[in-house]
LLM class flavin-dependent oxidoreductase (Lederbergia citrisecunda), 350 residues
Amino acid sequence: MESGKGIEIGLYTLADIVPNPHTGTAISAGQRIKEIIQAAKLADGAGLDIFGVEEHHRLDYAVSAPPVVLAAIAQATERIKLTSATTVLSTVDPVRLFEDFATLDLISDGRAEIIAGRGAFVESFPLFGFDINDYDALFEENMELLLKINENERISWSGRFRTPLNNAEIAPRALQNKLPIWVGVGGTPESAARAGRLGVGMAMVILGGEPRRFKHLVDLYHKAGMESGHQDQLNVSVTGHGYIAKTTQQAKDEFYPFYSNYWTYVNRQRGMSFKMTREDFEEMTRPETALFVGSPQQIVEKILYQYELFGHRRFMAQMDIGGIPFENVAQAIELLATEVAPVVRKETSK
């Protein structure tokens, strides 16, 4: 984190296409992508720091190619950093991935980043011809190769899952000296320790509950990173769901139908019938929990409480979820940028 600037504040999107619970209709994939580009323009113009786009390979999500969408965003924005959130690293060729994001880096004048993860869904494994039983081994090998490519414009390499490389040229090179690479971590200690050992950033996903239960992951990450000699490269990001309105009651009233709708939809896909009640939602949005739903002041307090716990350098929220209309998202982006970010940056720059 740059001295005196405080933590970075930004947004990410899963690009889900879920029917609006009030109307029963869903927008098209094309409209969803256009709204994502517009959200990034709003975030950039309002002074937010980072915008991320997630990868899925399903008809109920609009984005399967984050670098393509991010390249479109790059042309519509001026300064905001652009990242995948996340790239499913186990089922993508690391050479192709690096070349895509190096190209994005050139298009955007040095604003590209990668958050690599293993993904919450597994449809990309059969789609691209990979065995789900190799889930972890693929991730490990692909991360090793990606990091080597990021360091060297010519490489020789051999592994288990792809053809060897012999003094291969990896082109183009990014405008930045090296692309910033992060690993998305859900809740497993092994993932946190691996991110530390590799000396990459840890993007920690906290979707609810008490934030303190994630403190051990940050400690493991720093311990593994220090033991591996990466103390100068360690950065933590917190990502989570959220929504902001003028008052906490307004935020909860507006967001609940869409958030409940999202989880009902996702749980049905996973063979579960759980439906989030309003009482469940009220419990999830208590001041001491990690779900970022409330007034600007409540969101500030939640971010700063987590900053005391984790000392993270970046916070990213997902607010366009469950079919929520774009006008609601736009208003929440404005509040995040104008009433939350300045206070958080000031407090965390001390």
Summary: The longest helix spans residues 326-348.
